[in-house]
Specification:
By secondary structure, the protein is α/β, with parallel strands linked by helices. The chain contains 10 helices and 8 strands. The mean pLDDT is 97. The site of one manganese (II) ion has 7 residues, from loops.
Length: 321
């Protein structure tokens, strides 16, 4: 059945791509309270918050930059031939409103926003924000039981605390998520981990609970297909979240981020790993840590928007099936 035209993005043949008010991928803006919200299957959401950032800031500006860059996305995936806007009803749900002056209030506001989507059966695809934004999303989505997760990042974000006891930073969300029972550790794979470290407390914790960490030296020494088959096997058929930190990608391709680590994948590999998520039961996904103040010519935002499009294609295919 052809898709309802309301949910089809504005074509570049009707209005040039550089014109108009930008929404994610030129989709309709369907904020909370909109009469058609209940029909949405995949909701694209901005999370403009970086209150968990410990190093260079700026991801609060990520959603604006990602929205703008995403207007470059067209109707069909050039590799997989998926047409996501025909496969599923997608919309830009706008931004969740954080409280820039209060970390705990922001976490609560985000969790409530995503809980509403969960109750409506809308699968969220989020543009961050820093990586702490993923914690309230997992709190909202794990209501029906712990989730699997496939996590692309140069960091595990599994640390216990920061600066003598701060439990909530962008380096700790998945430690909290395991403690709170939001994730099923044996169904979690973390891919691309690298960089210098204060210590390996995070990796020791991963091992102790059964999380699989694929460090960058292993990632580069194995075929991508093999690495991703392992991640898919571990996730199994159960509900799985995909979290994509833009610093997974080498800073030569994605310099606009707060905590870059050299030696990462190139931009083709960055997209290819998402193609290889096909078949995973994805209940939500995000692209986080895009920091426009550190970007060069919008290249990180454009790559981030391209990763979002790949994630959308995979999610939309899952709904069609
Ligand atoms: Mn991260
Ligand atoms: Mn990171």
């Amino acid at each position: 059945m052809p898709q309802d035209p309301f949910f089809i993005p504005v074509s570049g043949f009707e209005l040039p791509r550089f014109a108009g008010v930008p929404t994610f991928m030129r989709l309709p803006h369907v904020p909370p309270g909109h009469p058609r919200l209940d029909e949405v299957q995949i909701g694209l959401v901005g999370a403009p918050w970086d209150g968990g950032t410990t190093n260079r800031p700026g991801p609060r500006h990520g959603p604006r930059a990602l929205r703008d860059a995403s207007t470059m996305m067209r109707a069909e995936n050039g590799v997989t031939r998926v047409r996501p806007f025909e496969a599923a009803r997608c919309a830009d749900l706008g931004d969740v409103a954080p409280n820039p002056a209060d970390l705990m209030d922001s976490l609560g506001r985000m969790e409530r926003f995503y809980r509403d989507l969960q109750q409506k059966g809308i699968r969220p695809l989020t543009a961050g924000g820093d990586h702490l934004c993923t914690l309230p999303i997992l709190r909202a989505l794990a209501g029906d039981g712990p989730l699997g997760m496939i996590h692309f990042d140069s960091h595990t974000d599994l640390f216990h605390s920061y600066f003598g006891g701060s439990l909530y930073t962008h380096g700790t969300p998945f430690r909290r998520a395991v403690e709170e029972g939001l994730l099923d550790p044996v169904r979690v794979t973390m891919i691309g981990i690298r960089g210098t470290a204060y210590d390996f407390e995070d990796r020791d914790f991963a091992k102790s609970v059964g999380i699989r960490v694929i460090p960058i030296e292993e990632f580069h020494s194995r075929p991508l297909e093999d690495v991703m088959a392992e991640a898919r096997d571990r996730a199994g058929g159960g509900r799985t979240y995909v979290s994509y930190d833009i610093d997974f990608i080498d800073p030569a391709f994605a310099p606009g981020t707060g905590t870059p680590e050299i030696g990462g994948p190139n931009s083709w590999q960055a997209l290819r790993v998402v193609h290889l998520l096909a078949g995973v039961n994805i209940v939500g996904a995000d692209v986080v840590e895009v920091s426009p103040p550190f970007d060069l010519g919008g290249m990180t935002a454009y790559l981030g928007a391209s990763v979002m499009f790949e994630l959308l294609c995979i999610m939309a295919t899952g709904i069609k099936g």
